[in-house]
Amino acid sequence: MSKKIVMRLPVYLKTLVLLAIGAAGTVSRADAGIITVPPGLSPGDTYRLVFVTSDTTTATSPYIDYYNAFVTLKADSSALAPLDASWMVIGSTEHVSAAFNIDVTDSATMKGIYNVAGQVVAYSTPALFNTNVTELINPIDLDQYGDTLLSYVWTGTLGTTGNTIPYRALGDTDVELGLDWLRFSEYLSEGADSINTASYYLYAISSPLTVSPEPSAFGLSALGGAILLLARRRKQENQRATPTHH
Predict the structure, then answer these.
(1) Is residue 185 part of a domain?
(2) What's the whole-model pTM score?
(3) Domain range spanning residue 196?
(4) Which of 47, 49, 36 is nearest to 140 (CA)?
(5) Host H or E run for residue 102
(6) Secondary structure of 218-244 as H, E, C letters
(7) Is residue 222 part of a domain?
(8) Residues 180-223 pLDDT 10s
(9) Which residues of 118-189 form beta strands (DSSP E)?
């Protein structure tokens, strides 16, 4: 029987490996099949991610917190979890509109809303609801794993404003539906509704995310040199501390 050999890296080498992975910025995204930092963005740029949930739920609850918790659970079940973002439903109850729930106030550094394939959906958060004039650049038809989902989605929301549709909101008896492959206002308010005990999907959007600066090659080199110097000094100290036998 062959014996499995486990190689244990010194702490300073583990540190360098982790820094190299972080600098590459693509290892986890390649493994997951999704893109968490859209291409073309620079350090300091702000963006948001959107997806449609891979699982369905009823729309019987009148409380927005239920739907926010549902989409958060779906995000945290995927490679989106390490982003440590807050996740909100793009949906409306009678007392909380989608526009209010997701906060349409963008910072000056906001570069856009993206799906998990790194494709732009809209260039600003308000543009998600300005679909009576323009259309979404790409539909919100990818789930948190990057798979395409073509289906009705619970929204309770007027697509042109992001406001609640009275008596057809989440938690009402009959709830407004959107279609996730559409790019005009029908992606939120297709004109169809369903009884709230049926099961459909939800749209999710992240809180604003900021692109972190990547370690420079000089910084990594200097850090690696400092770690190796420290290791050499510790080795010399250990040698001096070892008793000499004659």
Answers:
(1) yes
(2) 0.76
(3) 46-210
(4) 49
(5) helix 98-102
(6) HHHHHHHHHHHHHHHHHHHHHHHHCCC
(7) no
(8) 999 999 999 999 999 999 999 999 999 999 999 865 444 445 55
(9) 120-122, 152-154, 174-179
